[in-house]
Design goal:
alpha+beta, seven-stranded mixed sheet, 23% strand, single chain, 209 residues, 6 helices
């Protein structure tokens, strides 16, 4: 499942994804037991011009995993940011497929290609899955009681890293469009099947009368 860059038109899908998280998953993602209203405000304030949001869609176009790469620039332009913060969430039934790690690698690639020197991750100490991902990437993790902070120094961009980003974006767009078309075909076939069942039921009732 290729990783796709999300835009303002995906806000409803992002909201649906986050609202599908259980109480504990929300706690791990946001560091507090976020309510529906708080999540809605978070989604409404996403700045797609400043930050980057990535997602993984399944065949039914459900957003099953997403990451937010928040740039903390000294200016208003994200290409001049010195640091970026990473946050990720994965639906419970999609765990164990390394979606979190893949989104982390994807965000790291994008950040370094924008001149970011350090990737920052703030997580609860009990969020072992997230801390394991950043440790494996070589991040320095500092634990302070219930909370942990991690810093990952990023290498400078290269021609290869730029090519990898462009290639990934192209593959993700093709994959998404394919899923859109497949979803439309399936919806059409389901509608035809429903009509056939209704006609069959109507014919059966007429014959019995």
């Amino acid at each position: 499942m290729p990783i796709r860059s999300l835009t303002p038109r995906h806000r409803e899908r992002i909201l649906a994804h986050l609202l599908a998280l259980g109480e504990r998953d929300r706690y791990l993602r946001f560091g507090q037991p976020a309510t529906d209203a708080q999540i809605a405000r978070y989604v409404d304030t996403l700045d797609f011009d400043r930050d980057e949001v990535f997602g993984i869609f399944n065949r039914k176009l459900v957003l099953v995993a997403m990451a937010h790469l928040a740039y903390t620039p000294t200016t208003t332009h994200r290409d001049q940011a010195a640091m970026a913060e990473f946050g990720v969430s994965v639906l419970p039934d999609q765990r164990g497929r390394r979606f979190g790690a893949r989104l982390f690698d994807h965000a790291t690639l994008h950040a370094r290609n924008r001149g970011v020197e350090t990737l920052f991750i703030h997580a609860l100490s009990e969020n072992t899955a997230m801390l394991r991902i950043v440790r494996q990437a070589g991040a320095e993790v500092v634990r302070d009681g219930a909370e942990s902070e991690a810093w990952l120094k990023l290498p400078p961009e290269t021609i290869g890293s730029r090519f990898d980003e462009v290639l990934g974006l192209h593959a993700a767009e093709l994959d998404f469009q394919f899923k859109v078309q497949a979803h439309r075909v399936n919806s059409f076939l389901e509608a035809v099947s429903e009509i056939r069942h209704q006609l069959s039921d109507t014919a059966s009732k007429a014959a019995s009368e």
